[in-house]
Structure to design on (283 residues):
């Protein structure tokens, strides 16, 4: 039997679809059209000799073989990117100051930053978590080399889009979704998710009340777990012990985007980190 090689780009598309639960959103994430991504997945399934996704008109789910392949696909992509980064610039050194929203920094960033730190041990990372508006204000004041910020989908300001994902209503129980005045646990202004939740409910004429306000993501999660209220989170950032609620009872929410902003005169280590983050989020 001849040696078979896996297509790295197809693996990126596979992981993107698995993370977003959609061929459409996955294709946007890897900056390819949907027909190209569908063909990549077809060829990848042929190469591994197994069906990776169960496809229906409403959603896409990993098969058991797809679940088994996903972790290996992430590892292959990480090794590919680390090898390229290490060979391209092994002598990088310095400090890079990065700002990011707390939810994003605690879900999607840690593995990417760990791989970067391993590839470039002489680069010191200084990471700060805060609300988007605070990050932008501090970035404008020179506090960061790079910031990742939440923004309205399709916005032409506030950097270059590096991530997009659907927002969902999250709770410990669907019971709260049927209350006359929807109880919400939200971060204080100027939180983007708070703004989205309020605007969506107000547009639908759905009464709501704030039952818990906390700038800490852990605090919001704790309040929701205790059954105090519902909150809004990106689908891929929802803790496994909380429920994504049926949007038949609640109005649909717009997608969220993460954009990257960089200093005009960026250092070589910061430029390399920015490139690494973009590639990691694509995968």
């Amino acid at each position: 039997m001849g040696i078979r090689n896996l297509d790295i780009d197809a693996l990126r598309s596979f992981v993107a679809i698995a993370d977003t639960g959609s061929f459409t959103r996955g294709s946007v994430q890897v900056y390819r059209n949907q027909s190209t991504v569908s063909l990549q997945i077809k060829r990848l399934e042929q190469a591994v000799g197994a069906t990776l996704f169960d496809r229906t008109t409403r959603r896409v789910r990993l098969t058991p073989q797809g679940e088994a392949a996903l972790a290996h696909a992430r590892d292959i992509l990480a090794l590919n990117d680390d090898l390229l980064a290490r060979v391209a610039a092994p002598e990088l050194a310095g400090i890079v100051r990065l700002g990011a929203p707390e939810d994003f920094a605690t879900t999607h960033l840690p593995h990417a930053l760990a791989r970067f730190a391993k590839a470039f041990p002489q680069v010191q990372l200084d990471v700060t978590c805060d609300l988007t508006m605070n990050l932008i204000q501090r970035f404008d004041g020179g506090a960061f080399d790079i910031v990742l910020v939440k923004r309205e989908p399709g916005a032409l300001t506030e950097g270059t889009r590096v991530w997009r994902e659907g927002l969902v209503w999250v709770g410990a129980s669907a019971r709260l979704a049927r209350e006359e005045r929807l109880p919400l646990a939200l971060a204080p202004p100027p939180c983007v998710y708070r703004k989205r939740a309020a605007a969506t409910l107000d547009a639908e004429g759905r009464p709501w009340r704030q039952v818990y306000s906390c700038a800490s993501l852990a605090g919001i999660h704790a309040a929701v777990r205790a059954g105090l209220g519902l909150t809004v989170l990106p689908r891929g950032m929802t803790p496994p012990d909380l429920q994504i609620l049926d949007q038949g009872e609640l109005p649909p929410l717009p997608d969220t985007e993460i954009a990257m902003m960089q200093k005009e005169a960026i250092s070589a280590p910061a430029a390399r980190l920015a490139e690494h983050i973009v590639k990691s989020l694509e995968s």
Observations:
- The first helix runs from residue 8 to 20.
- The longest strand covers residues 160-171.
- The domain at 8-86 is CATH 1.10.10.10 (Arc Repressor Mutant, subunit A).
- The radius of gyration is 20 Å.
